[in-house]
Amino acid sequence: MKKDIRFVASPPAVVAGMLSLARVGPDDLVYDLGCGDGRLVIAAAELGARGIGVDIDPVLVRRSRENAVAAGQEERTEFRTGNFFEADLSGATVVALYLLHSVNAKLLPKLLRELRPGTRLVSHSFDMGHWPADRRITVEDKWIFLWNL
Question: Which residues does 55 contact at the CB level (< 8 Å), separation at least 6?
Answer without folding.
Answer: 7, 34, 35, 36, 61, 64, 79, 80, 81, 82, 84
